[in-house]
């Protein structure tokens, strides 16, 4: 567990290439720039071939839930529910799959793969998050050969 600052994890004292895998939960509470800094820190932390797993609310799922609320719900009440949720969680940046893949690619990660929460390429992660269809779960790797 890394201590979290207002805009991402604190990497002080973490040796380079010291981890084989990293689980990142909660990037929605950081700014876009904070996520870029965190991804750079995770990159430095991971050994070549290391795995990064990012778990965050899925913007597309949130929007779909808002747009397709129960047919008997009034538009005003669905807007109120959405805004109440946004204020309760205090998210700063909610990703959709495309935006998260782009951020991972810009940070140098390769082979991004989306998984359903509670599954993935490594059983180590399977029980660490709730099985929730509104979560965006993407795993990507630091290349084995870093140029």
TrEMBL record:
Q: Which InterPro entries match?
A: SAM-dependent_MTases_sf
Q: Which domain of life is it from?
A: Bacteria
Record-linked Gene3D superfamilies: Vaccinia Virus protein VP39 (3.40.50.150)
| Protein name stated in the entry | Class I SAM-dependent methyltransferase
């Amino acid at each position: 567990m890394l201590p979290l600052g207002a805009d991402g994890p604190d990497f002080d004292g973490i040796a380079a290439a010291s981890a084989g895998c990293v689980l990142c939960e909660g990037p929605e509470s950081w700014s876009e720039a904070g996520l870029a800094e965190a991804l750079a820190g995770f990159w430095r932390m991971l050994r070549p071939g290391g795995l990064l797993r990012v778990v965050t609310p899925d913007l597309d799922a949130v929007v779909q839930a808002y747009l397709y609320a129960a047919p008997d719900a009034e538009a005003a009440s669905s807007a109120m529910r959405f805004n109440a949720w946004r204020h309760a969680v205090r998210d700063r940046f909610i990703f959709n799959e495309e935006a998260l893949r782009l951020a991972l690619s810009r940070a140098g990660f390769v082979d991004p793969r989306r998984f359903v929460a509670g599954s993935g390429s490594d059983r180590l992660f399977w029980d660490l998050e709730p099985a929730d269809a509104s979560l965006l779960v993407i795993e990507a790797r630091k290349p084995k050969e870093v140029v």
